[in-house]
Write a structure and sequence with these properties.
2 domains
């Protein structure tokens, strides 16, 4: 059936962690439920491995109240393993925590918008954009392109692209887009606090205190 990879996020404000994830209203029971930033199988595999390489094993002890409730973190669980008595025990075996700013944001800060670039045959570009092919494996560097006769150059065009299905690059960029939007919304929500209760320095520091909560099952 394949391994399912799940990625959540949390943000810290004034010493406390809060869920930084979308909330969806269930059609079946009209209840609001937390959704992960990403959930999937093979298309997340490479990104998941990249995150795990720079992670801390297990879930943090100070997991946000929202995620703790959503994941039923302290509920008993039936297990054949004597050391697995609660969901927390289980998540600590299959999960890990990632410093989002260090591992994702700073790593991608100076990267180009697309992972790959080069001169590609125009026919291949059309097929790629129409979904007829999933990847571009044949392309020319600048040097190779300008070595071609002028007539052959007409068959090529400069193009930038990402892996369609796999690879960490596209997922990391997606994480940045989602986390940035949700962090902005979180900080905007702090405006509801009475003016004399707000701490503008801590509000700015929120952006540097974000972590990813990940697990595979």
């Amino acid at each position: 059936m394949g391994v399912v990879h799940v990625i959540y996020a949390e943000i810290k404000y004034n010493g406390k962690w809060y869920s930084l994830n979308p909330i969806r209203k269930s059609i079946s029971d009209n209840k609001y439920k937390i959704e992960p930033l990403y959930i999937g199988k093979s298309f997340l595999h490479d990104a998941f491995e990249e995150l795990e390489e720079s992670s801390r094993g297990g879930f943090p002890d100070d997991l946000s109240e929202e995620l703790s409730n959503h994941l039923k973190i302290d509920r008993p669980i039936k297990s054949d393993w004597p050391n697995i008595k609660t969901y927390r025990d289980w998540y600590n075996n299959v999960g890990f925590t990632v410093d989002y700013v260090r591992v994702v944001e700073l790593r991608m800060a100076n990267k180009p918008n697309k992972e790959y670039s080069g001169f590609v045959k125009k026919t291949l570009i059309t097929k790629y954009q129409n979904g007829e092919i999933d990847e571009i494996s044949e392309y020319l560097t600048n040097e190779d392109y300008f070595d071609l006769p002028a007539e052959k150059q007409k068959k090529y065009a400069y193009f930038e692209w990402d892996e369609t299905w796999f690879g960490y690059y596209k997922i990391f960029k997606g994480l940045i887009n989602k986390v940035t939007l949700l962090a902005d919304l979180f900080v905007d929500g702090l405006m509801d606090l009475p003016y004399d209760k707000r701490n503008f320095r801590l509000e700015e520091e929120c952006y540097n205190n974000i972590r990813l909560i990940c697990y595979a099952s």
